[in-house]
Amino acid sequence: MDRNHPRAYFPTRIVAVTLLLVSLSACSGLGQKNSATAGAAPSIIEKLEITSRKPAFSGQVFGDIGPYEFVAGVATVRVDPKHSANQAVVDLDKAVDPDGFVRFKTDLVVLRPVVAEKSSRVLIVDIPNRGNKLLLARLADGSNQFETSSQAGNGWPMRQGHTFAWIGWQGDVPLGTGGQSVGMQPPVAKNGLMPITGTSVEEFIFDKEETKSLGVLTYPAASTDTTKAELTVRATISSPPRTLAPSAWRYVDTGRIEITRPDGFDAGAIYQLTYEARDPKVMGLGMVALRDVTAFLKGNGQDADASKPSNPIADIDPNLTVLVGISQSGRFLRDFIWYGFNEALDGKKIFDAAMPIIAGSRKSYVNVRFAQPGRYSRQHEDHFYYGDQFPFTYATTTDPISGKTDGIFSRCEKNATCPKLMHLDSSLEFWQARASLLVVDGQGRSVPVPENVRLYLMAGTQHGPATKPEYGICQQLSNPATQTPMVRAVMARLIDWTRNGKMPPASRFPSLEKGLAEPTQASIGFPNLNSIGLSFPGVFNSLYVVNHKAAPAEIDFGKPYKLLLPRTDSDGHDIDGVRLPEIEVPLATHTGWGLRKSGFAEGQLCGISGTYSAFAKDAAERAGKNDPRPSVAERYKTRGAYLEQYSQAGRRLLDDGFLLDEDLARLIDHARQDPRIAHLPQ
After folding, report:
1. pTM over 0.85, yes/no
2. Are 264 and 234 in contact (CB under 8 A)?
3. Burial, 98: exposed, middle or buried (Cβ in 10 Å; 0-12, 13-18, 19+)?
4. What sequence ranges are listed for the domain Alpha/beta hydrolase (predicted)?
5. Which residues pair with 148 in a beta bridge?
6. What is the DSSP code string of 413-439?
7. Where do the domains of the chain lie?
């Protein structure tokens, strides 16, 4: 699809409670020759300002565990740039204070049982996504805030007694207020006292019908002279770009531009601004923040004043630590492990277990100069941006396309710091996040999965379930198929595996031997649903070898990766993976892809939205719609017959470890009240 792509642009790309001098490398054995100051610790928490401490969920009591409390604060971290454990951070040596150290601030938010003795002693660190706390909504079907009792949802994670923490890592998300959002304040890199400038690239797709739109720049422009920058526009990623005259757009200020849509382009057009930026932030410190603040919470250090313990979970003393990242955060999680940051400064393992959710085969756009952590490649949006480069697999392999040898676990395997890991993807990750590269190489050959890794596909789901099916800019309704019951069960399995050694279910993920196919409708087996307006995509998120060290980046269209997609059944549902009851006993077709509608780059993949297409109620309605799929009444003669099949599917998943007892009961109750079966006889 992109072989004739003519051009692509890229960048080179707390009031203090007490002063803590928490050495995270006590007894580490690391030589002083690596330190900025002889005898100095490579990283310490200099200060922790607790900004909020209050009851969570209006004081609700969670069974025997009791109530929870919410703690928010800001940590000041001091880092030795000369220490070997920190030298992977790009530009760290360009943000040094006069004393030879680098300092930054990061938010810390904790949700913990009030009574430490009731705690499970499991610490779950949920990596924030663009400053948002996502995991609790998936584990509790509630909210990502903790004020009222209704926000606790079903309360499952609190009833287990787990402690949760959120640590700021994304340097373009500002420090939050009272724990509502979670950000970080990294230093700006400089050449001595002089600012650093360099080529940076911004992409904008406005998806709005207005003819004038504002684009916000990640980094300030070194000059607001439009003749010193270049703005191009193209209809799709495979279309040739048109360079716009400097008079066709303007800088509103150093951080924003205004674009007037040129004739001949719709709302889904792709604009790329190549400009001279200034003041890059040391974004890679986000990995240091996650490593060192977690080590502090685990107690890997000593307070300067032992009579004033300032670790907000010191009394819990966690003995099992789990790292979770959802979407962007899952990509960062994979980068964190790949760079070797799961090794604490004392050589111990930081996280015992990890769960990247809907990350695909990606990593992140964080630890480079002029990084843009929010970017991630999709078929139409941000297609060639940094972050989707080898390695893709957890095992160490040799890439037949680039010739490189590497793996996400390549560093941690050398020092026994790899976590037990469960990787969950939706169907969309195969279409938009190149998930097949987790199990096959770039020539379509099988690659190994390490024994301490499980891969699970949440079959028939989109990136994140739609709260309510809506069209937006897509041709089809978005996909509401649930994921949360499976996420809860897999979390329980992961903790049991790590703590007690109980083996979890084997991977359930499409593979070359079972479930993956060439990216054509005939090979995949997706039904012909053109008659109801559901056309099979002609595109997916392709991948090539890219030289991101060049400015702009160089795309080698002669080195494409072979990507495969999941096979489907006659209803359009993925055959392999974990099929929750609404997919196994369906009332609709659910897919991990959607298509953009007319006026918004028609026919291109519709971002992170999938598709939902309900079956006809009965044969007469099906005939009227010319729908080739059997209707609800043709599939299930009575409500009782539907509920029996649904319950059996749920019980199988319960036996296999992919559902909890309480979730099976909830799902069956929900199915019993589903209005889509109301027309069936009892």
Report:
1. yes
2. no
3. exposed
4. 232-668
5. none
6. GGTT-PPEEEEEEETHHHHHS-GGGGT
7. 16-189+282-315, 197-278, 377-682
